[in-house]
Amino acid sequence: MSDSDAVSLPDVHATAIIITTAVGLVLATIALALRIYVRLWINRFFGYDDWALLTSYAGLVALSGLQIAYGETVEGDGIITSYDKITLITEWHTFVYAVHQGLLKVALGSFYLRVLQEPWQRRLVIVSTTIFFAYNIGIGLVLLFQCGNPEDVESTNCLPNHPLVVLIYIQAGFNVAMDWFLTLLPISIFLKIQMSTSARMSIGLLMGLGVMASAFSIARIPFLFTSDGDGYEGYAILTRLMILSYYENCLAQIGIAAVALRPLFRKMRNALGDPDLSLQHRMSGQYDYAMRPRAKSRDESKS
After folding, report:
1. Helix axes 119-144, 161-184, angle to 10 degrees
2. CA distance 222 to 287
3. What are the Rhodopsin domain coordinates in residue numbering (predicted)?
4. CA–CA distance, 92 with 101 (Å, rounded to integer)
């Protein structure tokens, strides 16, 4: 007998959660694998930004595992039967999401530290990223232990609900602000630094994916608060929140990995005998996606 025989339950689309999560993880894994190939076998260099991206990928794997476990549990056992288990999964899901958000911003900030030339820009990235990371770790821990031991899902000795909701909305707003800050930051690079068309395309790709990730960040805000008053209908809302939150992070993960793939595309063009592939492109060094200030010409130097 299913749960719905006694109680009218919403369709939480557990299968959709599993499938969309699996697809996102596969795409993120392919993007990371290609980046590692480029860094180790083409550039022959593995920097701190690559380690930061690997760390954030571990966070995505953990988030994916929790999300798939949630979908499989709901699909197999139902909401009522597995209430305690899925409550515990969602608590850890919230924590891992917050941590992964912080790790993503660290990975993106590490990329910009290789690109930005101005000291004030670098300091701004370091300070904003550090504050965002610390806030996300803090709120993740608060939400995880809001009722003491996370495994004691029946505990009623919890922190007041209203302050927690405020903290969650602050985190969401802070996240959107950071997305736009780190997305729009390359505009100064476009205006002040000379770069090839392919380099502009790489930065443009990152900006485009950043805008998409920000769109997911904004879209998930209306679903942040699923109160006890929603009853079992809250689980239908939770499905939307999970999928939006996951692809917000997944797109950012893919975008950061993809921005370093230009050497692979050049190698493919070279293998195909592209006559437009210049010697300058073939001889570029290990810091391939780092842009340098435009040097003055000889005539400009004399003037």
Report:
1. 150
2. 41
3. 34-267
4. 14
The helix/strand/coil state of 93 is: helix
The tally of CA atoms less than 13 A away on the side-chain side of residue 79 is: 21
For residue 165, give both structure tokens.
Answer: 């909701």
Choose among 121, 98, 112, 99: nearest CA to 48. 112
Note the helical H segments in the chain.
14-37, 48-77, 83-115, 119-144, 161-184, 187-192, 197-220, 233-258, 262-271, 279-282, 298-302
Residue type, 172: A
Distance (Å, rounded) from C-alpha 218 to C-alpha 200? 27
The identity of residue 163, as a single letter, is P
pLDDT tens, residue by residue, 178-234: 988 887 776 766 666 665 565 666 667 777 777 777 788 888 888 887 644 456 677
pLDDT in tens, 261-294: 777 777 777 777 654 544 444 444 443 444 334 4
Q: At what angle do helices 233-258 and 197-220 cross, to 10 degrees?
A: 170
Are the CB atoms for 122 and 116 separated by under 8 Å?
yes
Is residue 111 a contact partner of residue 209, using CB atoms and an 8 Å limit?
Answer: no
Q: How far apart are CA 259 and CA 182, in angstroms?
A: 14
Alpha helices in 116-151 (DSSP H): 119-144
In whole angstroms, what is the distance from residue 111 CA to residue 152 CA? 41
pTM of the predicted model as reported, rounded to 2 decimal places: 0.81
* Residue that wins the pLDDT comparison between 10 and 249: 249
